[in-house]
Amino acid sequence: MKALLRNISICLSILLIVACNATPDITDAMLDGDVIFDPSLYAPEDYLVSAKYPSPTQEDLKKHVLIAAHGYSASTFEWHEFAEWSADSSYRISSVLLDGHGRTYEDFRASKWEDWRAAIIREFELLEDLGYTKISLVGSSTSGALLLELMESGYFNSHIKPKNIFLIDPIVVPTAKLQSLAGIIGPMIVFLEVDQTAEEDKYWYHFRPQETVNELNQVIQKVRKGLEKGVTVPSGTYVKSFHSKNDPTASTTSTVLIYKGLKNSDGSKVDVQLMDSDIHVFTRLSLRPSVSPKELSNQLDAFTQISKRLK
């Protein structure tokens, strides 16, 4: 108990520094501001299969579609590398922008986790209504949790079953203990400032409102409780979770819980793979300060495994 109180005291001291400035210093060069918006908002047809092919042919409907969803505070940029890598493939990619993201700081601040999930559901149901039958999903970080929530809540019981669901560094248990304290010290935080480059500020929020941290906590807690009770994968759906061994954001305990609590419809365990990596969302290497040959190998490994199942 003394150790816990000491840790809380330290965290409070840090947060008080942040709380002294109740208004983040947002500039026009940041995604948080009023100038830069995710490009999918301007040209959805460049990102969403449903928008690019609103009247698909029978040949279109034979193609496999992968819905790719990014993490908390991120944007469609997170899956840009996979889209480029897949340019000559037979499958198509719908890169969704989570609702509340890719817009202003205030838009992000007002969003709920259900809003984030809504973007995934919307594209899935649009594709379903258009007649696509081969649909898979991949989610990084928080979107991994959102995809788990869709399975936990039984969403797919009344819809076509995804062919595959891939999870990239899914967050069910955060590595940063500070996040779990957000609900306790709440309004004192106001916002969290992230140490990232000016170029990254264009694609990830530099400031994270405490309201959204609370929303993130809510959805991962819901998923965690569901996994503790047991969650069954939709019949015929293949699930695999990839996770960095030394993920600084999403603890590998997340994938341990997934392995223990998520079962295939026949009762077997889902596939998991720990990657020799110390970065979060190891599939995104663009704009990293440095990229090792091992990280390139990890990315290629995941990309190749995913693409092979999109037949």
**Structural class of the secondary elements?**
alpha/beta
**CATH superfamily membership, which one?**
Alpha/Beta hydrolase fold, catalytic domain
Q: What is the count of structural domains?
A: 1
Quantity of strands, as a count = 10
User: What is the alpha-carbon Rg in Å?
Assistant: 19 Å
Kindly estimate the percentage of residues that lie in beta strands according to DSSP: 5-15%
What can you tell me about this protein's structure?
This protein is of the alpha/beta class. The protein has a single domain (35-308), classed as Rossmann fold, CATH 3.40.50.1820. Helices cover 39% and strands 14% of the residues. The chain has twelve helices and ten strands. The chain has helices at residues 2-19, 49-52, 58-61, 80-85, 105-110, 113-130, 142-152, 177-180, 182-185, 210-229, 253-261, 293-308, and strands at residues 65-69, 92-96, 135-140, 164-168, 191-193, 207-209, 231-232, 238-244, 262-263, 271-275. A six-stranded parallel beta sheet has the order 2-1-3-4-8-10, sandwiched between helices. Strand 3 (135-140), helix 7 (142-152) and strand 4 (164-168) form a beta-alpha-beta unit. Helix 7 (142-152) packs across helix 10 and helix 10 runs parallel beside helix 11 (253-261). The longest helix is centred in the C-terminal third of the chain and has 20 residues, at 210-229. The radius of gyration is 19 Å and the shape is globular. Residues 1-20 and 178-186 have low confidence and may be disordered.
